[in-house]
């Protein structure tokens, strides 16, 4: 639709002390086969802020060529651009090139493995304490 955009995330952390956020790890952010021919008709982004302290991390994932070079989208002017935390680490694919990304205070390209580890299922969700009992397959660390 004209004038519309797609965003993969719109996280709503309202207080910087909240331990919430969206982490997408080891995923494929690519168009469905039937939509592939029209993938550029609507601009697509990794996310946009929803609340003041929005937090989203995309890591070790494949990003398709339809992701805009800026990567991330403003929601309402400069709302939350200094207080959000958006980050990328170790992604691959044509949409993973970060040198054209937004230049916001709250956007980060993580280059340190230890920094990225804090957003994996083990530390971020305390996954080792409860996920095993659910029977849901998970991985606590980094893939790469």
Automatic annotation (TrEMBL):
Subcellular localization(s) per the UniProt record: Secreted, Cell wall
InterPro entries the UniProt entry points to: Pectin_lyas_fold, Pectin_lyase_fold/virulence, Pectinesterase_cat
Alphabetized UniProt keyword annotations: Aspartyl esterase, Cell wall, Hydrolase, Secreted
Keyword Isomerase set for record: no
Superkingdom: Eukaryota
GO MF, one example: pectinesterase activity
Pathway(s) of this molecule: Glycan metabolism; pectin degradation; 2-dehydro-3-deoxy-D-gluconate from pectin: step 1/5
Protein name in the entry: Pectinesterase-like
């Amino acid at each position: 639709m004209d004038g519309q955009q797609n965003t993969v995330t719109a996280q709503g952390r309202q207080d910087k002390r909240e331990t919430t956020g969206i982490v997408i790890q080891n995923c494929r952010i690519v168009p469905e086969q039937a939509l592939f021919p029209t993938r550029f008709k609507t601009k697509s982004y990794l996310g946009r802020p929803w609340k003041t302290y929005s937090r989203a991390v995309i890591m070790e994932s494949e990003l398709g060529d339809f992701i805009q070079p800026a990567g991330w989208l403003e929601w309402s002017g400069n709302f939350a651009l200094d207080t959000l935390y958006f980050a990328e680490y170790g992604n691959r694919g044509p949409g993973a090139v970060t040198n054209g990304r937004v230049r916001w205070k709250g956007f980060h390209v993580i280059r340190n493995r230890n920094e990225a580890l804090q957003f994996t299922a083990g530390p971020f969700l305390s996954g080792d304490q409860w996920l095993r009992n659910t029977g849901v397959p998970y991985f606590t660390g980094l893939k790469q």
